[in-house]
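Most newcomers find our protein records easier to grasp once they have seen one. To make this concrete, we reproduce a full record directly below:

…
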Amino acid sequence: MKLHSDRFAPSFRRRLLAAAVAAVCSAPALAVSPFVVKDIRVEGIQRTEAGTVFSYLPVRVGETFNDEKSIATIKALYNTGFFKDVRLEVDNDVLVVLVEERPAIASVDFTGTHEFEKDNLVKALKDIGVGETKIYDKASVDRAEQELKRQYLSHGMYAVKITTTITPIERNRVNVMFNVDEGDAARIKAVNIVGNKAFTDKELREVMALSNSGWFTWYTKADQYSKQKLTGDIEAIKSFYLDRGYLEVNVDSTQVSITPDKKDIYLTINITEGEKYTVSDIKMDGEMFGREEELKSLVLLRKGQVFSGTLQTESNKRIQDRLGNFGYAFANVNANPEIDRANKTVAFTFLVDPGKRVYVRRMNIAGNTTTRDEVIRREFRQFEGAWYDNNRIKLSRDRVDRLGYFKEVTVDTPEAQGVNDQVDVNLTVTEKPTGNFTIGGAFSQAEKFVFTMSVQQVNFAGSGNTVGIDFNTSRYSRTIALSEFNPYFTEDGISRGVELFTRTTRPPLLNIGSYTIKQNGGRVTFGVPFSELDTIFFGIGLEHSRIETDETSPALYRQFVRQYGNSLTGVGSATTDAVPLTAAWARDSRDSALTPSAGKYTRVNLELDTIGNSKYYRAVLEHQYYWPITKKITLALKGEVDYGHGLKGKDYPVFKRFYAGGIGSVRGYQSFSLGYLDPNTYDVLGGAQRVIGNAELQLPFPGSGQDRSLRWFGFVDGGQVYQEGQKMRLSELRYSAGLGLSWISPVGPLKLSYAYPLNAKPNDRLERFQFQMGTGF
């Protein structure tokens, strides 16, 4: 600091500078003759506003300036962090503040970073003071460099080298560049477990995320050490033991050692297993409102059963959730163990503290930038002013999530401010793009290349409605369809779907005879939900169909032309008009529509035409069942029975016939190949009745972790197609078994299978390896 004033002799000014600087660090060494500040002038600022400097000054115009004020001024301006030098001068009772600003950071960038997303690094460093527009401080940059290095070390990248380059640019700014040489990640050479007697090293390693190098670790990075993964593995090992009765298990210590070349890591985990305990008794205590037996029935632990930590935790949660259904949002349940080490038993007393009963004050929605509030709010099953109901809140969240409009849906229930018996339910959503414009293609062995185009807008203009157009060039079914779906056509949740279509169908590639079916029409369908899982549908349509045949056409199609057209030979064309009435019921309790692992799906559909000249009915019964054998393995079963029949002496329409064979029905047989064959051309003609059964044992693909979009499976299929009026004999079913792979790829669902037909007949057309994009289970 320099303090210039006519009050001091020139020889005294240099001493005062030293004394004042010392005073900033300790206490004033020399007294300054006070003076009244006539004005204050700030010099040297470039980016900082003069008003910002004035706001930090402890002195104002008209006040007396003395040595205490000078020291306070220096401290205040230095503490802002904006300046690297501050001086004070006096010019005829005008206080002159001379500052030299610290440079500002213009940009922060990285080179050589592959392990972490660059955007995440920029955000993380900005939180610790190193970011665009922040004041440059070498200490902060050094701290940021060390934090970067720490993050790499936590990911097992011990060879990382980080250098920082500071480049000055115009207007007193700098660019900060972190140059990262990640080096090779150290790999786990061995995982050693010490102290385990009840279980083998292999059994314990299977529950760990970390492992030594193997076939798939290049993809999973399971052999790349991470402190976070190790912490998770310790908890996984504890849970493994707790679920098998080892109540007092403890992971005593872990050692991580690295070779001098920083390439190999050796991991050692030391365990004390303790004894295996059996549950001797279950008791309940606390306030239970006369529901002791009901709450006790929710406890999953049983007397005489080996103790399980998962069952105990789940029991606590089940009791809390049940109390939450009655308005006790903050119920607390603790299972207190009484250990008998001599007999190796443990008794539990579940202490129940329901807390206060609360009700919901407000249901708040946040994050919906496009979707209208009412579109979300109509999915709520918890209501404002009602008692808090845990089930209804969870159901509300699930229903909003199932809309498919949001990346993430979260719910929290904070206590309402100022009261102790109310909560607010805050539902926060993160919007995602719901428009979809696709031009692409698919390829299958049966249909070769198929061009597709679709324009679909789900949640159109935030209304919750869906509008779309579909177009494809399938060899067998060229289609243009326009559709609109309103899930809340009425306030009560009745849905309405409208579709207009034009379709041209030709025989499968394996047929010799030719024919063409052209259909134009539309339909409107209404859906009425009568429970959270069940919906009934009613619809009416109008279809105009034209069938064209020639001399090579199968006899079945020429017979249809004779019946509905003017040709006695069956060569020519015939038109029919149908007014199909539809009624359906669907029940869906699956945990996911795309990759289900638990739940059921049942659909019954009846289509009837008695008004048009087609005169037929068509019934479809489908049932899917998903049984989670373990957390990662699912048994999926599907059965379908279809039946069609003509009415009033009419044959069942050929354009409504069923087909089977290939992925989606019976794998190992060519697509559309099962069923009745024309006796002259041996063309596949489908049928009016169909039975299909599938069983899949779905397993996670090695290295995919919890990702259910990539799975492999073993399967057994069975099915057959029958003619109208033919007895459906199970002895005529065709069976196959094999292995397959399913992947929800970026371009659509992909399924591959290799099947071995189990009871193929001489005329059956086989195809063991099959694949298809866009086919579900």
User: Anything to note?
Assistant: Residues 1-30, 438-447 have pLDDT under 50 and may be disordered. The chain has 13 helices and 36 strands. The radius of gyration is 38 Å. The chain has six domains: 10-101, 104-181, 187-272, 278-353, 359-429, 581-773.
